[in-house]
């Protein structure tokens, strides 16, 4: 126990005497948490719309003004032909084309039905899909308005209607910050914990100071614990700072229990630090450790469900996603913060993180050799 | 010229004799393009929803079958109280709930007016909106079948066409982005590290005291990476066409030309980093940590650039991968020619010239 105390003293001195590393640990995450959520906004708004109006009637005018008044669409072009409008799509100046055929008004009144053509740039499938759906519902509203003008209300009621009452729980204003801020905080804690611990043992190897440790009676697990605990404490501090930013800047207060959140982070950090230590026992130079850590952090970043939902991935990719500790943490962080999930809800994820922590740290201790080869 | 070729050969030896780096150079792009190409998608697929059917009559059953028939949803049918639904959401088991009230069919037939409630877990706002939209479409489609015999008067039927990507596949958005990301990061890192390594090992001194021009020292460093990156590019393109089903609608020649230009731009970014740093460690930190998040976000393939606040949009303009992403989408997917992308091409070329000029100017022929 006394050995551990001295080792910890040494590690803390090393961290606090390195003026370069402290800002990297504490300032960088905060700055990133302030900037990144602004960049990571997938709210679909300001869809640029090109209109091709072959009819030029009062009906088509009404439709266009109804669409532009909705707030989702910006009229970016009023073109005489589809070809010209298509050119706008090619230049990325328009996202959707609305084409109103000739005699739109006349045929609608005379023949009782009329078609409208929508063409969306579907390279970004989500945007096209949502844009077309918004436009479709505006057209349906418009259609109902017209019908009301021409038909007596009682006749209209003879048609069966199904009212759909939809509600959005946990985030009624559909704010994208609510989704991204807890997720980005999770990634930042991961990056700090993973990189710092990955570089640490390797640094001692490269400078040669590890020889000094190897010739002492320090036990393997003492050494590993001595490396783990300082970074674990720093991880907790970073997470706390992140929670403060989340509350003060974005106004997101965890709905669930804060104690549960901390309990989870405490376990999660053990898993991530174990990953870092494992990487550092496998590499000989800091450069190698960086490359390996970089490769995995890329995968953590993109497969963790931060940007795209894990449910939409093919099954084999879902397995890879679940084999990263970070996907569970992002999920749980969002659950506790946004939905107020309780211990019973996140029990499984906690068990998984414990398993990760045990396996990764155990592996790292086994793989760390005090004998040089 | 002969000298130059000898130096290029030296650099090739450097690369080929370092197995680990070579593995990184080819392994990383291949693994990532395949993994991310398949995995990254915003499509709604197999979302777990729960159907709470208090009606249990003909109409509700029919509607449920229709919802089941679409492959967006994985349905679980149970009778749940409001409380239980909330608990399920909290566990993260379901993404949405559809609730049929009692007497659904009766209401629909006799009063011509029935109600359905949809509750979505909006902690992911876009997913919630999409799910609600899909469910709504299915319900409205069912209503249309009810009134087919007696068509609605004054009906406007919107016909929707999805251009370039009729199946709304996620790969179409993400593969070009991952290409830009991977090429940018790998090229930048490799060049920056290879030059700084010579500084760190002290061999740079030997090169500088030789009669060989310093300018050519740098150029000969860049050549192998240019060649290898082109090989890399070919592999990436083959993978994305044959494995990920990406179309190449424009000219292959143009695609290669633009990609080569982008690779040169990325190599110049690497050169700049290498002139500004003294240790491999710093060079790596700058080219990995420093470049990764900006490239990830400002390329515009994860989040639309037009949604970002103005200052960030301006920052995005100096990220080369943003322009390459536009070019590659235009050439591969839209099948456009040089006339539509000359502006982006010029910007990339301009960036390259400026970056090269600065790094040559900053390249010190004296050791500090």
Q: Could you describe the 3D structure shown?
A:
The complex is a heterodimer of chains A (373) and B (368). Chain A has 15 helices and 5 strands. Chain A folds into 2 domains: 2-40 and 179-367, no CATH class; 47-157, abc type-2 transporter like fold (3-Layer(aba) Sandwich), CATH 3.40.1710.10. Chain A is 68% helix and 10% strand. In chain A, helix 2 runs antiparallel to helix 8, helix 8 (176-207) packs antiparallel against helix 10 (220-248) and helix 8 (176-207) packs parallel to helix 11 (258-282). The model of chain B has no long low-confidence stretch (mean pLDDT 84). Chain B has helices spanning 2-17, 19-39, 58-69, 82-91, 104-111, 125-146, 171-201, 203-209, 214-243, 252-276, 280-298, 310-316, 320-333, 338-362, and strands spanning 47-53, 73-77, 96-100, 113-121, 155-163. In chain B, helix 7 (171-201) packs parallel to helix 10 (252-276). By secondary structure, chain B is of the alpha/beta class. Chain B contains 14 helices and 5 strands. In chain B, strands 2-1-3-4 form a 4-stranded mixed β-sheet. The chains are: A alpha/beta (373), B alpha/beta (368). At the A-B interface, helix 2, strand 4, helix 6, strand 5 and helix 8 of A face helix 2, helix 4, strand 4, helix 6 and strand 5 of B.
H-E string of chain B:
HHEHEHEHEHEHHHHHHHH
Number of domains of chain A: 2
**Shape category of chain B:** elongated
Report on the biggest sheet of chain A: 4 strands, mixed
Stretches of chain B where pLDDT is under 50 for at least 5 consecutive residues are none
Query: C-alpha Rg of chain A, in Å?
Result: 29 Å
What helical percentage do the residues of chain B reach? 55-70%
Instruction: Report strand % of chain A.
Output: 5-15%
The spatial strand order of the largest sheet of chain B comes to 2-1-3-4
What is the CA-atom radius of gyration of chain B, in angstroms? Answer: 28 Å
Mean pLDDT of chain B: 84
General form of chain A: elongated
The number of distinct β-strands of chain B equals: 5
Structural class of chain A: alpha/beta
Report the oligomer.
heterodimer
Order of helices and strands of chain A: HHEHEHEHEHHEHHHHHHHH
What's the total helix number of chain B? 14
Structural class of chain B: alpha/beta
């Amino acid at each position: 126990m006394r050995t551990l105390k001295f080792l910890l003293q040494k590690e803390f001195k090393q961290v606090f005497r390195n003026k370069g590393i402290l800002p990297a640990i504490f300032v960088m995450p905060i700055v990133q948490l302030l900037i990144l959520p602004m960049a990571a906004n997938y709210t679909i708004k300001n869809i640029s719309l090109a209109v091709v109006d072959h009819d030029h009637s009062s009906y088509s005018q009404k439709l266009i003004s109804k669409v532009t008044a909705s707030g989702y669409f910006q009229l970016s072009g009023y073109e005489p032909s589809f070809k010209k409008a298509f050119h706008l799509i090619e230049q990325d100046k328009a996202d959707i084309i609305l084409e109103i055929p000739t005699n739109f008004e006349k045929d609608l009144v005379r023949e009782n039905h009329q078609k409208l053509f929508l063409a969306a740039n579907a390279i970004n499938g989500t945007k096209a899909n949502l844009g077309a759906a918004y436009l479709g519902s505006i057209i349906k509203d418009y259609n109902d308005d017209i019908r009301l003008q021409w038909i007596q209300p009682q006749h209209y009621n003879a048609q069966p209607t199904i009212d759909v009452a939809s509600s959005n729980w946990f985030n009624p204003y559909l704010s994208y910050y609510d989704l991204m801020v807890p997720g980005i905080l999770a990634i930042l804690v991961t990056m700090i914990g993973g990189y710092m611990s990955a570089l640490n043992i390797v640094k001692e190897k490269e400078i040669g100071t590890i020889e000094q440790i190897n010739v002492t009676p320090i036990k393997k697990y003492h050494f590993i614990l001595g490396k783990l605990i300082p970074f674990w404490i720093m991880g907790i501090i970073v997470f706390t700072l992140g929670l403060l930013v989340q509350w003060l800047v974005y106004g997101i207060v965890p709905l669930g229990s804060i104690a549960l959140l901390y309990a989870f982070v405490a376990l999660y950090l053990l898993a991530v630090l174990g990953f870092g230590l494992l990487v550092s026992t496998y590499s000989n130079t800091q450069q190698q450790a960086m490359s390996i850590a970089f490769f995995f952090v890329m995968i953590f970043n993109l497969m963790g469900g931060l940007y795209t939902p894990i449910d939409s991935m093919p099954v084999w990719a879902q397995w890879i996603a679940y084999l990263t500790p970070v996907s569970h943490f992002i999920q749980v962080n969002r659950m506790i913060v946004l939905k107020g999930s309780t211990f019973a809800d996140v029990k499984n994820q906690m068990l998984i993180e414990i398993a990760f922590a045990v396996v990764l740290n155990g592996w790292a201790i086994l793989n760390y050799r005090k004998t040089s080869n | 010229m002969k000298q130059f070729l000898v130096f290029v050969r030296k650099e090739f030896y450097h690369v080929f004799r370092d197995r680990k780096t070579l593995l990184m150079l080819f392994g990383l792009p291949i693994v990532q393009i395949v993994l991310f190409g398949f995995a990254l998608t915003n499509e709604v697929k197999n979302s777990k929803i729960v159907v709470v059917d208090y009606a249990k009559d003909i109409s509700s059953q029919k509607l449920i079958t229709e919802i089941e028939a679409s492959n967006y949803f994985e349905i679980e049918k149970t009778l749940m109280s409001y409380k239980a639904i909330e608990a399920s959401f909290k566990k993260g088991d379901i993404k949405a709930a559809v609730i049929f009230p009692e007497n659904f069919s009766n209401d629909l037939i006799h009063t011509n007016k029935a109600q359905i409630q949809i509750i979505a877990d909006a902690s992911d706002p876009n997913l919630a909106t999409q799910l609600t939209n899909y469910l709504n479409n299915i319900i409205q489609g069912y209503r249309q079948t009810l009134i087919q015999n007696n068509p609605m008067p004054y009906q406007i039927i919107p016909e929707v066409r999805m251009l370039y990507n009729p199946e709304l596949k996620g790969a179409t958005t993400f593969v070009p982005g991952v290409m830009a990301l991977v090429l940018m990061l790998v090229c930048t890192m490799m060049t920056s590290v290879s030059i700084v390594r010579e500084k760190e090992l002290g061999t740079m001194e030997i090169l500088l005291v030789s009669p060989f021009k310093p300018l050519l020292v740098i150029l000969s460093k860049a050549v192998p990476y240019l060649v290898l990156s082109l090989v890399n590019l070919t592999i990436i393109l083959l993978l994305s066409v044959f494995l990920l089903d990406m179309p190449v609608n424009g000219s292959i020649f143009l695609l290669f030309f633009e990609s080569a230009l982008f690779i040169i731009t990325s190599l110049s970014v690497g050169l700049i980093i290498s002139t500004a740093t003294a240790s491999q460690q710093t060079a790596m930190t700058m080219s990995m940590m420093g470049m990764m998040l900006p490239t990830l976000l400002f390329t515009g393939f994860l989040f639309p650039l037009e949604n970002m606040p103005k200052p960030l949009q301006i920052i995005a303009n100096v990220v080369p991968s943003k322009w390459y992403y536009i070019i590659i989408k235009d050439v591969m997917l839209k099948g456009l020619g040089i006339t539509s992308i000359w502006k982006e091409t010029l910007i990339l070329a301009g960036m390259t010239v400026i970056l090269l000029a600065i790094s040559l100017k900053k390249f010190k022929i004296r050791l500090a």
